[in-house]
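QA checklist item 7 of 12: single-chain prediction sanity check.
[x] sequence parsed
[x] length recorded as 536
[x] structure emitted
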Amino acid sequence: MQHRSGFSPPVLRWLLVAAVLLVELLAMTIAFETPEGRGGGGFADLLVGNLALIAKTLVAFSACVFILAFRMNSEVRAAFLVPGDRLWSGWLALHLVLMSVFWFLTGNVLGPTREASVSLVGLWFLSGGLAVAPLLLIAAPLESWRSIARAWSRPILLCGCVAILIVACSTMAQLLWPLLAEITLQSVKWILSAFYPLADHGSKHIVGTLSFAVDVAPQCSGIEGIGMILVFLGLYVWMFRAQLRFPAVFWLFPIGVIAIWTANVLRIVTLIAIGSSFSSEIALGGFHSQAGWIGFCGVSLALILVADRVSRPLGHAVATTTRDTSAASVRALLVPLMVSLGASMLVDAASSGTFRHGYPLIAVATLAAIWFYRDHYRRHLGLPDAATVGIALAVFVAWLLLVPPAPERGALLAADLRELPPGLQILWLAFRVAGSVIAVPIVEELAFRGYLLPRLAGHPAGNLGFERTPWLAVVVSSGLFGLMHANWLAGFVAGAGFAFALIRRNRMSDAIWAHAICNGMVAIAAIAFGRWDLWG
């Protein structure tokens, strides 16, 4: 049975549970401050003093279970998306009562007095667990939880071990920051000394020439890039495990760590070289903010190419042809966005301010990539209907409501634009409109709604035959889409709207049209009404 809203009643219960937990988490975060550490040395002090680590472990465990849920797809639907207990209001009332007890005990454990006796802390943890239990029974019956626990106890236990390992590695990485920063610093000095006379700036962490220097802090050691590349490789190996050859593929991990650390050293060397020999504004402006992402993307692409060398060989020519065709389709969905992002990073890296003088190069590179793969997009051609236009209008209105006006930023963009000669102003605006209304909707929809959404829903890339709305896949893909935008919430809402436009008729063209129309209205608002901040 479907609810009038389009959600089934079980999904509504899950949304209710998620909303209650989110509100309570935010309230407790505002009301109480997690202690950095406790004295005393007792067991209770140890627990309370390490609440931050416990919270990180729970978050990591939840993320691992969330990933596991995709593999448990059919079992989860069978066990959880069933009619629940009709006494859900009673369970909610019980939760609120137990939550009140937990809140009172939290005030004693984390409040100004901060009592940390073993009995009080033990009662505090017990009340927190009991408060969550009624919410779980609202989401699904007790038998559903029992069946999942019996069938998937070992994988869930493995998720707990992985979560502990993640937090342990994160803590160790923080301890390794100073050592890695020192190695990075000495490597930068060694390379720079071959081209420039180095100057003594009075601190062992500052390196540079007589005219330009940088402070190589522990955060510049490359540890963040190493963490990002390990996460990227882990996801890549998991998603394409059927095509990769084990254990040879595990060599990608040490290769990736060495490559991303080397890229970070070269980034610092190049930053100092640009600041010393060309322009300190460019070095501290666009290059400083974009070079790290350029290096990460370059290393990631190189690792994917290396991974192709350790792919599992297929047995016959027909299978090889099928694989090549599938790979070509995936490239057609993803490469244009990668080209667009790469061009954006290069243009930003060469900019000394916030104004993108080189935006026409981004538009040309993106449109060229789309043209190169044009034959793959013919099946996606089509005209929008009235509902698609309505979705575009709704997303545009939501965008205006969620993105607060920034007149100062808009005034800066308008001032930079006026500094260009009239002919170049028109040319820049033409490419800006073409990029935002034509290029961006195509590449972003192909990647997020053409590739990512079907993959998260368990379909092959580009397969849009959704029999029903894959809500979880929509939420995840829209969340990742939102991360590409300065205002995450507005980007999330826009991504969900474009996903709904696609799923409604299983047509990629509807998502692209909705995105293009929305961006077209943003362009009109920017040019005709002076809302330049919408393009900032």
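[x] summary fact logged: Residues 1-8, 314-325 have pLDDT under 50 and may be disordered.
[ ] second reviewer sign-off
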